[in-house]
Amino acid sequence: MKTLQTKVLIIGAGPTGLMMACQLARYKVPFLLIDQKKSITNETKALGVQARTMEVYQQMGIAQEALRRGLIGEAVNFVIKGKPIRRIDLAEIGKDLSPFPYIHMLVQHENEALLQHFLKTEGESVLWNTHLDTITQTDAEVEAVIITKDGERQTVVADWLVGADGGSSTTRHQLGMSFKGETHEQTFFVADTQIDWAYAQELHVCLDKTKFLAFFPMKGDRRFRIVGALPSHLKDIEGIQFEVFIEEILKDISIDLRISNTDWFSTYKIHHRVVDSFQRGRCFLAGDSAHLHSPVGAQGMNTGLLDAYNLAWKLSLVVKEKAAASLLKTYTEERLPFAQELVNTTDRVFGMIVSNNPFLRFFRRNVFPTLFKIGTSYDKVRKFAFGRVSQTGINYRKSSINRNHQSDSFNNKAPQAGDRFPYITSNKTNTFDWLDGTAFQLLYFYTKREEETIVQLKNYLTLSNLDIQFYQFDKERNATFFEGLGIKEQAIFIVRPDMYIGYRSGGVDLMDLEVYFSRLLGGEVQG
Ligand SMILES: Cc1cc2nc3c(=O)[nH]c(=O)nc-3n(C[C@H](O)[C@H](O)[C@H](O)COP(=O)(O)OP(=O)(O)OC[C@H]3O[C@@H](n4cnc5c(N)ncnc54)[C@H](O)[C@@H]3O)c2cc1C
């Protein structure tokens, strides 16, 4: 049997596995990416790309192309008895919070195509028509048996394995990991269509008494995705025809439209499931293989992409022997709580959307649209809601590798260690302009310039075996950044390669910096 060697074996080239490969390519870590399909998906599946994903795309240099291929979600309209009763502008819902202050509509296969193209420009590719069969692992390595297109069995020996093989993950089964949760009994449908009606190419959500139905705008002439619950009398979904049952639903809720084209139609069940850990020995799970939830809030693909993004820089430090393997435990530490919360919240919201409870139906129809409108007009609510849905508000404050020091030197607006580095604009520049590489960034903010301190910091960084870029900012020319970061006099921020604050200090304390780096790299991870 032929044997292949690699540093990281990635199972599955859906969005999660492709992102994992792209990130490892950025860090120049050798990997092998396999998928049982013959190419990227030809189904549109995920549609909503959140701001946090767009920020990652920006760092990779593919955000502009993503924008060109998709469509910004301009507004949501709540519809009752076929008539929009309330319109809420979403185009700037995240104003001042992200360079991408909206939800971007870009179908899954376009996302996959962008990532595949990125891989190609890095000189890498996917091994298609190849599937994972078995996994065994020791303390030193992972051995996977894969089966190629010709049915040939091959052994891959890798330092690490990432299972990004979707909801029915072979990796998860091979590792014997449980996937607790439930499958909702109701069947749902999705159809990508072309629609003639009187309304704008914006999101429309029908709040009629018993039916759930939503129209999502898609790139292209009058194109919309229709999502809804399948009528309960349609027990046997084999051979059902979208054109037939949709007419019945539309008539029921008095909506006047004509569907002229249907590109894709599918039915699906909704699951709420999550694993107990994202790691077993030298193997990791990411994306749908680790968590499944309803499409409410357009979170699934985005979460998988960001799982991979969180794991990749850590894996790169470990593979290059710059950090101890214990750093990889913080992948579960940082990502699992978010996945658990996501599964619970989408479950609750989904329950409210489809419930037949008279109180919830009344609330949905008569209270929710107004509440939504009023809520999003309050800055605090708007910021909170955008942070949650766009995933820009996810924080890793409880992670054992992030560190706050001399906190009294910040005001209470200051972001903390474990927060995503905030987006702050000033003149023609913004904080994200500094975060475009694969390195850590040490940002030094001062009111009074002290040459000796700067020399000390630079010397300290020269001795480090990490790739760390140094930037300095004086208060006079950078007052906006001082204000946005809540700095009183001086501060140090260390921003991780994933744009999260790893370290925050109100002064320069080289001994404390040493504590931060030794915990990060040396295996002294607590908890
Ligand atoms: C109708 C619908 C709408 C959705 N809308 C959104 C949305 O708007 N926003 C959002 O973020 N998410 C959305 N989602 C969810 C999103 O599609 C998934 O979360 C996403 O596909 C997960 O990506 P993944 O790479 O983790 O898994 P998958 O996309 O399932 O990819 C897994 C890959 O692994 C491969 N594979 C499986 N087993 C093996 C094996 N043994 N060997 C080799 N390869 C293997 C498969 O061929 C596949 O390519 C939606 C889903 C549906 C169904």
Folded structure, characterized:
With 527 residues, the protein is of the alpha+beta class. Among the domains are: 2-71 and 103-180 and 275-354, FAD/NAD(P)-binding domain (3-Layer(bba) Sandwich); 403-521, Glutaredoxin, CATH 3.40.30.120. The protein contains 13 helices and 25 strands. The strands form five sheets. The protein has an eight-stranded mixed β-sheet, with helices on one face. Strands 1, 2, 8, 9, 10, 16 and 17 form a seven-stranded mixed β-sheet that branches. Strand 24 and strand 25 (501-505) form a beta hairpin. Helix 1 packs parallel to helix 4, helix 1 (15-26) packs parallel to helix 7 (300-319) and helix 7 (300-319) runs antiparallel to helix 8 (329-354). The protein is globular. The protein starts with a strand and ends in a 6-residue tail after the last helix. The model has no long low-confidence stretch (mean pLDDT 92). It binds flavin-adenine dinucleotide (FAD). Flavin-adenine dinucleotide (FAD) binds at residues 11-17, 34-37, 45-48, 108, 131-132, 164-166, 170, 190, 268, 287-288, 295, 298-302, 304.
List the helices and strands and how they pair.
Elements: E1 2-11, H1 15-26, E2 31-34, E3 48-49, H2 51-60, H3 63-69, E4 71-72, E5 75-80, E6 83-89, E7 104-105, H4 108-121, E8 131-137, E9 142-147, E10 153-163, H5 170-175, E11 180-196, E12 203-206, E13 213-217, E14 223-229, H6 242-252, E15 258-274, E16 279-280, E17 283-285, E18 291-292, H7 300-319, H8 329-354, H9 358-377, H10 379-390, E19 403-405, E20 425-426, E21 429-430, E22 440-446, H11 451-463, E23 468-474, H12 479-484, E24 491-495, E25 501-505, H13 510-521
Parallel strand pairs: 1-2, 1-10, 5-12, 10-17, 19-25, 22-23
Antiparallel strand pairs: 3-7, 4-7, 5-6, 8-9, 9-10, 11-14, 11-15, 12-13, 13-14, 15-18, 16-17, 20-21, 22-24, 24-25
Helix pairs in contact: 1-4, 1-7, 7-8
Bound molecules: flavin-adenine dinucleotide.
Flavin-adenine dinucleotide (FAD) binds next to helix 1, strand 8 and helix 7.
